[in-house]
Amino acid sequence: MELKPFYPVSDKAKAHSYLSEHDYKQMYQQSIERPDEFWAEQANTFIDWYQPWEQVSKVDYHQAQIQWFAGAKLNVSYNCIDRHLPERASQTAIIFEGDEPGNSHHVSYQELSDQVNKFANVLKSRGVKKGDRVCIYMPMIVEVGYAMLACARIGAVHSVVFGGFSTESIKTRILDADCQVVITADQGMRGGKVIPLKDNVDAAVADCPNVHSVIVVERTGADVNWNPAIDVHYEQAMAQADSFCEPEIMDAEDPLFILYTSGSTGKPKGVLHTCGGYILYASMTHKYVFDYRDGEIYWCTADAGWITGHSYIFYGPLANGATTLVFEGVPTYPDASRFWQVIEEHKVNVFYTAPTAIRALMGLGDELVNKQDLSSLRLLGTVGEPINPEAWHWYYEVVGKNNCPIVDTWWQTETGGVLITTLPGSSGMKPGAAGLPFFGIKPAILDADGNELEGECRGRLVLTGSWPGQMRTVYGDQQRFYETYFSQYPGYYFAGDGAKRDKDGYYWIIGRIDDVLNVSGHRLGTAEIESALVLHPKVSEAAVVGYPHDIKGQGVYAYVTLMKGEQGDAGLDSELKDLVAKELGSFSKPDLLQWSPSLPKTRSGKIMRRILRKIAENELDNLGDTSTLADPGAVDELIENRLIR
Ligand code: WT7
């Protein structure tokens, strides 16, 4: 396989694209020189408003105050459904592909409308009003989309919790947002395994006295525990519901949803997005980043529990009247050709997935891909972590047959939509680089002291100025919003990533520079994993770092110090890993756990994570300055017993 550093825009991509290279440059220039004029024009193009805004944007990073289109009125579900009905009532909105092959069906825009309207009425009948928070803990079935849009229709604020999260994680999220209604399913099915969603919710709501309704969708029909005081049978309630619900008129700055994400300290943050700016940014990026054309079949493999699922399975595509595929399963069930079979079966044109999935499938050989007909593919995308050039080339050559551009999209839960990528018809690709800023996005690279660097450089990635899809606050904690993103480098939004910029202005994301890990594209806070470990009575202290992992990108490496007199053994090793899985979900489970009689600390008691990272990576030549350590002997002991050599 020949590894080329640059791939120019192909004629095919140019012919399909909305924008030429010249258009991109011109539009980008306009977007940063006259942003309010630019965004007003886009807002009028992409979104149907009941009433216009008073002011396009009002942003003050020093106060962490961000507003877009305040005073304007709209409803997001109207924009995703009602306005399409005159032309698209019978067009497929959602293609569902179940966990088991053969379980698939289409949902038209008319049917989507009926289901969402009914669901909105069901929520209303349970007393849900504008501004109330609703927790959604569901498998990847079409009802998760109905639930989100039903909330949007009545102005309720949804908080989707990933179906792989544990009881503890659901509980903390329900309590943090004071959700009083939970929407779930009896069970989930993923990769042939049953996920006891209702049981997990029951255990969580036992400690959530304000939850008055749990709406249960039937997925497997299993006999689940039933609490008649709060449990609501979804199918029965829907059968009685009216199929029209007047959309609630929302201000552009009214909340649309909360989505929790991990940070470097403390408990997960409730990232809050609002109606107007978010739906504009999600739909506009979906159209241009994927060059999405009417009638195409679009598939993003994310889960609704992540921002990618929010913006690029449901909100962006549906606002554009697209056909979006919802996949319940995993890439390797019943076997590792599942993705390629689904692409062939549904003639998928645009395919958007994560580097970790690409690496896992790449390792299984080309045969599984080649035996499927992938000729429908036009464009490929990746998201979640930097893609290594080997995986990029495999994706490009074996999956895309050298014929599909790849968009490597850099963004975050906080950003609402893609900020950096190469637009397929406008800019050539460099494997491993995310690329160029989207319209209205002004990235900058700072040195450690906060000085902006010019030209080719490497440092901290920040953004100057706002964009409509930006988060507005941490739910219930405006101070934390300010401190996390705006206090370190005043006047900038600090993303937490390191990056370099090359001579052509392309951005290459290096990875998190805070104590956040990226494991299989999932964002994990080391502090949360450490807190889970020290819950065990035998553990006195824990420190968690990442180490390079072939498939997952990063793996979780935990150093654990036991209470005096305790002994580490295989039994305790798995007990501790299971404890983390129970507290935080299985993907937070440490891959490696090293018993550490003591941890390297500064004289002021701060754990020297830099050294722990080096030991975990087996990079011993360059341990850096250890002179400030309280007990340099601790390091020798850790090196001697390291788990990767
Ligand atoms: C972090 C955000 C945005 C949806 C998925 C993750 C990393 C994301 C890329 C990319 C390199 C990437 C960053 C970022 N990341 N996309 N294309 N190249 N790194 O959302 O959980 O909020 O995580 O994911 O480190 O800060 P998230």
Automatic annotation (TrEMBL):
<feature type="binding site">
    <location>
        <position position="497"/>
    </location>
    <ligand>
        <name>ATP</name>
    </ligand>
</feature>
<feature type="domain" description="AMP-dependent synthetase/ligase">
    <location>
        <begin position="87"/>
        <end position="466"/>
    </location>
</feature>
<dbReference type="Pfam" id="PF00501">
    <property type="entry name" value="AMP-binding"/>
</dbReference>
<dbReference type="InterPro" id="IPR000873">
    <property type="entry name" value="AMP-dep_synth/lig_dom"/>
</dbReference>
<feature type="binding site">
    <location>
        <begin position="190"/>
        <end position="193"/>
    </location>
    <ligand>
        <name>CoA</name>
    </ligand>
</feature>
<feature type="binding site">
    <location>
        <position position="536"/>
    </location>
    <ligand>
        <name>Mg(2+)</name>
    </ligand>
</feature>
<keyword id="KW-0067">ATP-binding</keyword>
<feature type="modified residue" description="N6-acetyllysine">
    <location>
        <position position="606"/>
    </location>
</feature>
<feature type="domain" description="AMP-binding enzyme C-terminal">
    <location>
        <begin position="528"/>
        <end position="606"/>
    </location>
</feature>
<protein>
    <recommendedName>
        <fullName>Acetyl-coenzyme A synthetase</fullName>
        <ecNumber>6.2.1.1</ecNumber>
    </recommendedName>
</protein>
<dbReference type="InterPro" id="IPR032387">
    <property type="entry name" value="ACAS_N"/>
</dbReference>
<dbReference type="GO" id="GO:0005524">
    <property type="term" value="F:ATP binding"/>
</dbReference>
<keyword id="KW-0479">Metal-binding</keyword>
<dbReference type="InterPro" id="IPR025110">
    <property type="entry name" value="AMP-bd_C"/>
</dbReference>
<feature type="binding site">
    <location>
        <position position="534"/>
    </location>
    <ligand>
        <name>Mg(2+)</name>
    </ligand>
</feature>
<feature type="binding site">
    <location>
        <position position="512"/>
    </location>
    <ligand>
        <name>ATP</name>
    </ligand>
</feature>
<keyword id="KW-0007">Acetylation</keyword>
<dbReference type="GO" id="GO:0019427">
    <property type="term" value="P:acetyl-CoA biosynthetic process from acetate"/>
</dbReference>
<keyword id="KW-0460">Magnesium</keyword>
<dbReference type="GO" id="GO:0016208">
    <property type="term" value="F:AMP binding"/>
</dbReference>
<dbReference type="GO" id="GO:0046872">
    <property type="term" value="F:metal ion binding"/>
</dbReference>
<feature type="binding site">
    <location>
        <position position="539"/>
    </location>
    <ligand>
        <name>Mg(2+)</name>
    </ligand>
</feature>
<dbReference type="InterPro" id="IPR045851">
    <property type="entry name" value="AMP-bd_C_sf"/>
</dbReference>
<keyword id="KW-0436">Ligase</keyword>
<feature type="binding site">
    <location>
        <begin position="408"/>
        <end position="413"/>
    </location>
    <ligand>
        <name>ATP</name>
    </ligand>
</feature>
<dbReference type="InterPro" id="IPR011904">
    <property type="entry name" value="Ac_CoA_lig"/>
</dbReference>
<dbReference type="InterPro" id="IPR042099">
    <property type="entry name" value="ANL_N_sf"/>
</dbReference>
<feature type="binding site">
    <location>
        <position position="308"/>
    </location>
    <ligand>
        <name>CoA</name>
    </ligand>
</feature>
<dbReference type="InterPro" id="IPR020845">
    <property type="entry name" value="AMP-binding_CS"/>
</dbReference>
<feature type="binding site">
    <location>
        <position position="520"/>
    </location>
    <ligand>
        <name>CoA</name>
    </ligand>
</feature>
<comment type="similarity">
    <text>Belongs to the ATP-dependent AMP-binding enzyme family.</text>
</comment>
<feature type="binding site">
    <location>
        <position position="523"/>
    </location>
    <ligand>
        <name>ATP</name>
    </ligand>
</feature>
<keyword id="KW-0547">Nucleotide-binding</keyword>
<dbReference type="GO" id="GO:0003987">
    <property type="term" value="F:acetate-CoA ligase activity"/>
</dbReference>
<dbReference type="GO" id="GO:0005829">
    <property type="term" value="C:cytosol"/>
</dbReference>
<comment type="function">
    <text>Catalyzes the conversion of acetate into acetyl-CoA (AcCoA), an essential intermediate at the junction of anabolic and catabolic pathways. AcsA undergoes a two-step reaction. In the first half reaction, AcsA combines acetate with ATP to form acetyl-adenylate (AcAMP) intermediate. In the second half reaction, it can then transfer the acetyl group from AcAMP to the sulfhydryl group of CoA, forming the product AcCoA.</text>
</comment>
<dbReference type="Pfam" id="PF16177">
    <property type="entry name" value="ACAS_N"/>
</dbReference>
<feature type="binding site">
    <location>
        <begin position="384"/>
        <end position="386"/>
    </location>
    <ligand>
        <name>ATP</name>
    </ligand>
</feature>
<feature type="domain" description="Acetyl-coenzyme A synthetase N-terminal">
    <location>
        <begin position="24"/>
        <end position="80"/>
    </location>
</feature>
<dbReference type="Pfam" id="PF13193">
    <property type="entry name" value="AMP-binding_C"/>
</dbReference>
